[in-house]
């Protein structure tokens, strides 16, 4: 029928766009992971920023995989989501991947803030000296928090399905908002954890931005070389772009939570598209702001052109 054709066309287009987005995410983040792992094997050394970048690349690579598999199964074999515990399992996987991505980004922002920004506060100076020892614990803590988010996602979805008496698939593995007190509490805890990571990342980024801006103004006042000033301006632009990306990404996440379970599929699709596309753009920024990654990318592209 015409209605069936429209639904099928929408699903096919959505899956096509999601596939392109997933392939881009897999290629870009897989490239970051491969370059860093090869450098680690060759030099037997791994600094703190590379540890965070590797963790972030792995998180985003996994998120692209989970998102694509979910979209593929939804389109090709939606019946599998009527089987226990498929909805719960995907809810846990999506919660884990989203949380690990968010917390890894927050760790990267915090690290750059402590390492680059210049503040004379005693606690900040203490952190600057200890940051390399703190980074592994931050990453370990991010994994633990992400596992707790996965457990929350599983429990919330499982309880919602039991209350509703349905085993049907839920968009993005998240339950619709209900009046059940237990679900609301778990839902609130999960949203608070994600908001904490977002707040930490934004505060760290703004502190770094203010430090770079003050340093740029100082250099201009002292008539220092234009090259240094240009480098600071480039860094400031990258930070501002990251703030925009991260804010839109987090807003999309919150809107998805609000609209889940409501019949606004097109609106939800565009919000999901932005939520998963913006981290891909951020990964590209990370590549071009890291000399090692940028040189490796240019070398790889040159090899492809020669072939």
TrEMBL record:
The keyword Transmembrane applies. InterPro entries: TAS2R (IPR007960). It is found in: Membrane. Its main location: membrane. One of its GO terms (molecular function) is bitter taste receptor activity. The chain crosses the membrane at residues 12-41, 53-78, 90-114, 134-154, 183-209, 239-260. It comes from the Eukaryota. Keywords: G-protein coupled receptor, Membrane, Receptor, Sensory transduction, Taste, Transducer, Transmembrane, Transmembrane helix. It is a multi-pass membrane protein. GO terms for cellular component: membrane. Belongs to the G-protein coupled receptor T2R family. This is Taste receptor type 2. It comes from Tricholaema leucomelas (pied barbet). The gene is Tas2r9_1.
């Amino acid at each position: 029928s015409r209605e069936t054709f429209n639904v099928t066309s929408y699903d096919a287009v959505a899956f096509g766009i999601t596939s392109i987005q997933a392939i881009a995410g897999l290629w870009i983040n897989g490239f970051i992971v491969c370059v860093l792992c090869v450098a680690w094997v060759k030099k037997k050394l791994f600094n703190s920023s590379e540890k965070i970048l590797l963790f972030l690349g792995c998180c985003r690579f996994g998120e692209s995989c989970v998102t694509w598999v979910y979209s593929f199964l939804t389109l090709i074999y939606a019946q599998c989501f009527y089987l226990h515990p498929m909805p719960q399992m995907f809810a846990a996987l999506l919660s884990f991947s989203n949380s690990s991505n968010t917390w890894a980004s927050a760790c990267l922002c915090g690290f750059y803030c402590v390492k680059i920004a210049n503040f004379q506060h005693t606690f900040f100076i203490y952190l600057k000296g200890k940051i390399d020892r703190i980074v592994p614990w931050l990453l370990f803590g991010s994994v633990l928090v992400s596992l707790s988010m996965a457990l929350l996602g599983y429990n919330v979805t499982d309880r919602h399905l039991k209350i509703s008496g349905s085993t049907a698939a839920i968009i993005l593995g998240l339950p619709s908002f209900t009046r059940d007190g237990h679900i609301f509490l778990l839902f609130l805890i999960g949203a608070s954890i994600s908001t904490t990571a977002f707040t930490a990342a934004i505060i760290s980024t703004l502190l770094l931005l203010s430090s770079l801006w003050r340093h740029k103004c100082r250099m201009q006042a002292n008539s220092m070389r234009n090259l240094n000033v240009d480098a600071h301006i480039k860094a400031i632009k990258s930070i501002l772009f990251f703030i925009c990306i991260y804010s839109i990404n987090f807003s999309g996440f919150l809107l998805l939570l609000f609209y889940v379970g409501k019949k606004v599929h097109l609106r939800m699709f565009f919000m999901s598209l932005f939520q998963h596309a913006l981290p891909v753009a951020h990964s590209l920024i990370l590549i071009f702001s890291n000399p090692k990654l940028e040189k490796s990318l240019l070398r790889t592209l040159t090899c492809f052109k020669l072939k």
